[in-house]
Each structure stands twice: as structure tokens, then as C-alpha cells.
Design brief:
Number of strands: 9
Strand content: 15-25%
Helix content: 40-55%
Number of helices: 12
Order of helices and strands: HHEHEHEHHEEEHHEHEHHEH
Radius of gyration: 17 Å
Strand order of the largest sheet: 2-1-3-4-8-7-9
Number of domains: 1
Distance between the termini: 34 Å
CATH class: Alpha Beta
Structural class: alpha/beta
Shape: globular
CATH superfamily: Thiamin diphosphate (ThDP)-binding fold, Pyr/PP domains
């Protein structure tokens, strides 16, 4: 793949920046394949967030902006408005997109900014120690909810793709997973659709990826993928929640 690159630090023997079993690597590969297939390399600008997602610029040979925590959509908005000829997307974790940056994310969708938002939902703050995040499941134990998340204190987890779909400026909103070959193939098709709608200038597009965090979940990669299948997907069903191009047919 032309877009995917091996960082010089890894060539020199430094450790890989994603934990063993982390799904970020799968999602980054999907991104690289689509950028190549759609011939977007020379026109793409990405806004990455603080967190595990910030390492995106280590692996994709495209222009990237490192955003302050939660501000990726704000920066992507500025980039797209200044350079409407560019293809722009954000790459964010669930805490960044749906908690710290919820205002930026929701209002970007409400304004119909012609960018694509990608949210990696692993139900925790992965880089900073496994704290409870906005998508942490009910009953899930984290470093800041050691007895498990319960509604009396913490409220309910947010269903991000469904909320974004409610925004009038949203042209496309979907949720996918990468826990199996079939789901990986489907995820690529869905993300491609989101990219194509942006290229048509029809509005804001969004894809939420259900992903693992074996380190903070204290699981093996196999156990983590079982958790996605048995716990996350029932709570966060996969599918397309809004597609204005389908409604037009």
C-alpha cells in the first residue's frame, strides 16, 4: 500500500506504539487501503486527537494535524472551510469524540460540516490508564469505576452513532466492528461509503468502530474480541443509522 508506512522508529527496533491485540492497527490498515483505492493521498488532511489515536500520523503517509484533546472536529472544520478542495477526516477515541469533545462533535454534525468523523469506541480511556469513558458499559469495571458502572452515579453510556444520526446536518452515520473477518470487510465498505458521500459534498459523515483494549480490559486479544461480540455489539448494534443517499432512492 502506498499510504501505509513503517515508522523509522520501528525500523530501528523501537516498540510498536499500539498494545498487542489492539484493533487500531486493523482500522489504520482499512484507512490506508481506502485512501489508496480512492486516490486521496495527495488531497487528504487528517485531524487526530490526543490518546492512542494520535499515533495515526506514524503510520499513514498523509498530512495530519495533532489536535488538543477533544478539538479534532474544530480543527477539521477550519481546515475544510479554508481548503474545501481537500478531503478531511478526524480520527478520535470515544472519550475524545463523545466526552471531552462532545460539543465540537455534535455541533460539527449539526452544521453539516463536509468532513468525516471516525470514532474508535473501546469503552475506556486507553492511553491514560483505563478510566471510565462515555461509552463504558453498565457493570464494566474501570480504574475510576472499580465497582462497575451503574446508573445511580454514572448514568447511561452514550450511543454515539445514533446520536449523530439525529443531527440534521448529518448525511451518513454508522457503527461497525472489526472483531471478525466478516465484520472487517463490512467495516471497509461502510467507511468507503462515508468517504464517497464526503467527496460528493453532501454533509457530515460519521463511522463508529467498536474496538478492543486488551491492556486496560486485562484480557487476551481473543477474550477481548469475544467481549466485543458478546457484550458490546448487543449494547451497540452494528448498522447504518442514517444515509441520505439511500433515502433519495
Amino acid at each position: 500500500m502506498q499510504v501505509f508506512k513503517i515508522p523509522e522508529s520501528i525500523k530501528k527496533g523501537a516498540r510498536f506504539t499500539f498494545c498487542p491485540g489492539c484493533d487500531h492497527g486493523i482500522i489504520v490498515r482499512i484507512l490506508a487501503e481506502l485512501i489508496d483505492e480512492l486516490e486521496l493521498k495527495e488531497k487528504t488532511i487528517c485531524a487526530t486527537s490526543i490518546g492512542c489515536s494520535v499515533f495515526l500520523y506514524d503510520f499513514l503517509n498523509i498530512d495530519c494535524i495533532e489536535s488538543p484533546h477533544g478539538r479534532a472536529m474544530a480543527e477539521a472544520t477550519g481546515v475544510k472551510r479554508a481548503r474545501p478542495d481537500k478531503f478531511v477526516f478526524t480520527y478520535q477515541g470515544d472519550g475524545d469524540f463523545a466526552s471531552i469533545g462532545l460539543a465540537e462533535s455534535m455541533h460539527g454534525a449539526l452544521r453539516g460540516e463536509k468532513v468525516t468523523g471516525i470514532c474508535i469506541n473501546n469503552t475506556t480511556y486507553g492511553m491514560t490508564g483505563g478510566q471510565m469513558g462515555p461509552t463504558t458499559l453498565l457493570g464494566q469495571k474501570t480504574t475510576t469505576s472499580p465497582m462497575g458502572r451503574f446508573t445511580g452515579t454514572y448514568g447511561y453510556p452514550i450511543k454515539v452513532a445514533e446520536q449523530i444520526a439525529l443531527c440534521d446536518g448529518t448525511a451518513f452515520s454508522a457503527r461497525v466492528a472489526v472483531d471478525s473477518i466478516a465484520h472487517i470487510n463490512q467495516a471497509k465498505k461502510v467507511l468507503k461509503k462515508a468517504f464517497e458521500i464526503q467527496l460528493k459534498g453532501l454533509g457530515y459523515t460519521f463511522v463508529e468502530f467498536l474496538a478492543t483494549c486488551p491492556t486496560n480490559w486485562k484480557m487476551t486479544p481473543e477474550e477481548a474480541h469475544d467481549r466485543v461480540k458478546n457484550e458490546m455489539i448487543p449494547e451497540y448494534p452494528l448498522g447504518i443509522f442514517k444515509d441520505i443517499t439511500a433515502e433519495d432512492k
